[in-house]
Design a protein that fits this description.
Number of domains: 1
Distance between the termini: 37 Å
CATH topology: Rossmann fold
Number of strands: 9
Radius of gyration: 18 Å
Strand content: 15-25%
Helix content: 40-55%
Order of helices and strands: HHHEHEHEEHEHHHEHEEHE
CATH class: Alpha Beta
Shape: globular
Number of helices: 11
Length: 262
C-alpha cells in the first residue's frame, strides 16, 4: 500500500466528512448521554489550571465545550475548512492549522494534550505524532488519548464494512467513488508500548464509550431525530453488557499517560 496516497486519501476523507456539517450541529453531541459520560471522564484526567491542546480537533466541539467550562484549550487541525468554520463560530478561540506531527509550538508549551480518535489514522504508525506530543508537553504533562476499540460487535460488522469500501463493489452498486480514511485498531498493549518507548508513563488504560459501540453497530440503537445520537435501547444495552463484558463492548479505549521527566 502506498503510504503517501493513503495519507492523502485519509485527509480527503476527513475533509469530506466535515464540510457538510456546521459547528452548531456537531455541538449537539453534548446532549447525548454517552458524550456527557465521556466529558466527565475527560475532566477527571485533565488539569483545570494550565494550558490544554487538542490535536486533530475537527470542528472543535471538545475545544468549545471545555473552554465554556473554564479550561484554557487550543485547537489544532490540518483541515482549512474546519478551522474556518470554528473561527466563524467564535473568533476568540485559539486555533492553528497544522499537522499534529509538526506543530507550531515551543517545547513544553502545554500542561495537557488531548488526542481523540487521531493516532489510529497514520498508516506509517503514530510514532511521530507521539514524539511531537511529548515535545510540546511540559514534564509531567498529561497525554490523554482515545482510540477506536475492535470490540465484538465491530468484529461482526467488519466484513460488511470491507464490502462497502471495495471499489469494485461500489461501482457494481452505483455508489460512486469515495475516499475512506485509514484506521488501525490498536491492542491496548501495543499503544502502551509505543507510549512508553516515546517517553511517556502510562497511568491508566480503560474501556469507554460502550453506548457508541451499539450505535455504530446498528441503526436500531440510533435516535434518528438527532445528528448522531443514541436512543434509550442503546443506553440500556450498553449499561447491561458493559458491566459484564467491559472490553468486548467498548467503543473506545482511553489511555492516560504522563510525560517522563527530562
Amino acid at each position: 500500500m502506498d503510504s503517501t496516497k493513503t495519507g492523502i486519501e485519509t485527509k480527503k476523507a476527513w475533509s469530506d466528512n466535515w464540510k457538510d456539517h456546521s459547528v452548531e450541529r456537531v455541538l449537539e453531541i453534548f446532549s447525548y448521554p454517552r458524550v456527557t459520560r465521556l466529558l466527565d471522564t475527560f475532566r477527571s484526567a485533565l488539569p483545570h489550571d494550565g494550558k490544554v491542546l487538542e490535536g486533530g480537533c475537527g470542528l472543535g466541539p471538545w475545544v468549545i465545550k471545555l473552554r465554556s467550562l473554564g479550561y484554557d484549550v487550543t485547537g489544532v487541525d490540518y483541515d482549512e475548512v474546519s478551522i474556518r468554520k470554528i473561527r466563524e463560530y467564535d473568533k476568540n478561540i485559539p486555533l492553528y492549522m497544522s499537522d499534529v506531527e509538526k506543530m507550531p509550538f515551543g517545547d513544553g508549551s502545554f500542561d495537557a494534550y488531548m488526542s481523540l480518535g487521531v493516532l489510529e489514522h497514520f498508516y506509517e504508525g503514530p510514532e511521530k505524532a507521539i514524539r511531537e506530543a511529548r515535545r510540546v508537553l511540559k514534564p509531567g504533562g498529561v497525554f490523554m488519548i482515545t482510540l477506536p476499540y475492535l470490540n465484538a460487535l465491530l468484529r461482526m460488522k467488519l466484513p460488511l464494512l470491507a464490502l462497502k469500501r471495495n471499489k469494485l463493489m461500489r461501482k457494481l452498486f452505483g455508489r460512486g467513488k469515495k475516499d475512506f480514511y485509514y484506521e488501525k485498531y490498536f491492542k491496548v498493549r501495543e499503544i502502551k508500548k509505543l507510549l512508553e518507548e516515546g517517553g511517556f508513563t502510562v497511568k491508566k488504560a480503560v474501556p469507554v464509550d460502550h453506548i457508541f459501540a451499539f450505535v455504530s453497530f446498528s441503526g436500531i440503537f440510533r435516535d434518528k431525530s438527532t445528528y448522531d445520537g443514541e436512543n434509550r435501547l442503546a443506553v440500556k444495552f450498553a449499561d447491561f453488557f458493559g458491566k459484564i463484558f467491559p472490553w468486548q463492548t467498548a467503543g473506545s479505549s482511553l489511555i492516560v499517560a504522563v510525560k517522563k521527566g527530562e
